[in-house]
Design goal:
Layout (H helix, E strand, L loop, with lengths): L2 H10 L22 H15 L16 H11 L18 E5 L3 H12 L3 E5 L8 H7 L3 E3 L2 H7 L2 E4 L18 E4 L5 H4 L3 H4 L5 H8 L4 E4 L6 H7 L11 E6 L2 H13 L3 E4 L22 H10 L3
Parallel strand pairs: 1-2, 1-4, 2-3, 4-5, 5-6, 7-8
Antiparallel strand pairs: 6-7
Helix pairs in contact: 1-2, 2-5, 4-10
């Protein structure tokens, strides 16, 4: 029985749910579920599998039927961490904090835990809701509050909606390397005048909120499923998926470049934080699965 079907049986309290056809609709009432039950089902899927089906990069077609949700979760469930992947270069052990543990944050946490780093994951709902993800990440992971994750990390990955940036507490991020993995989507985040006008980038908005942090922009150009699939620590750097990285702190960029290399990707310097618009949604490199040379060319083609 698949994970989704096992969870569905538990939520409905009906063993017969295990035998429902793959094309049984979820969203159109095919199961006769009340909206509150659907919410419980999706929350249980997240807790048990580590896949956040409310995350920003979710294609809603993935929620249409039992079969499509099954396939979506099977392709994105976090691989348990153990020893570093054979052939993976091992760098200095670090503590990586995650503010936001949905598809993007959870995927990166899994990749970095598998590379031997300690990861501390957090979300807006509290550490107790991350038990399933922590189990899947393995002994290198623990759950915490947002403040605790920021305080614990040598590097802190922020993977929450841009609209939530004003809610982040500035003090715990002071002095930390902070990686902004988010994107501005007005339909989700609401209209933000500074971003709509082009006066500021979303990473700049985060840097304003966290003035003592060393903010970089990275991991925002590819969805979590493809990110996991394209990591290859055994491949030459020139053949790996490129990850554009923007920021003003050269030392912080060097640290992130090394982490990106350890998980089997290649960092490409996209310039200063003010130039991070070159990798935002709508830019040529956004969504492009390319190598370093191709990414460099696409970044240069970006126009505002």
């Amino acid at each position: 029985m698949s994970e989704v079907r096992r969870i569905l049986v538990a939520v409905l309290g009906d063993p017969a749910a295990a035998n429902l056809p793959d094309d049984t609709p979820l969203l159109s009432g095919g199961l006769g579920l009340e909206s509150a039950t659907v919410v419980r089902l999706l929350a249980a899927v997240h807790a048990e599998t580590g896949v956040d089906v409310a995350d920003e990069d979710l294609d809603l077609d993935s929620l249409a039927t039992i079969g499509s949700l099954d396939a979506y979760v099977a392709g994105r469930a976090v691989r348990p961490a153990g020893n570093p992947v054979p052939g993976r270069r091992v760098g200095r052990r670090m503590r990586i904090g995650f503010v936001g543990a949905g598809n993007v944050g959870g995927t990166l946490a899994g990749l970095l835990a598998a590379a031997g780093h300690d990861v501390v994951v957090s979300n807006s709902r509290g550490p107790e809701t991350l038990a399933g993800l922590v189990r899947r990440l393995g002994p290198k992971a623990r759950a915490a509050t947002t403040t605790e994750a920021a305080e614990a990390g040598d590097v802190v990955v922020v993977a929450v909606p841009v609209g939530a940036y004003p809610e982040l507490p500035a003090e715990p991020f002071a002095g930390k390397i902070v990686v902004d993995a988010g994107n501005y989507y007005p339909r989700r985040d609401g209209r933000i005048a500074e971003l709509d006008s082009g006066r500021m980038t979303s990473a700049g908005l985060l840097a304003d909120r966290l003035p003592a942090a060393r903010v970089l922009k990275a991991f925002n150009t590819i969805n979590s499923g493809r990110l996991r699939e394209r990591c290859d620590p055994t491949a030459p750097a020139r053949d790996r998926l490129a990850i554009p990285m923007a920021g003003d702190d050269a030392a912080a960029k060097a640290v992130l470049t090394d982490l990106i290399d350890q998980i089997g990707l290649t960092a490409v310097d996209a310039g200063s934080l003010a130039e991070s618009w070159r990798q935002e949604p709508g830019s040529p490199v956004y969504g492009a699965e390319v190598d370093a040379d191709q990414a460099t060319a696409l970044l240069a083609q970006a126009r505002r």
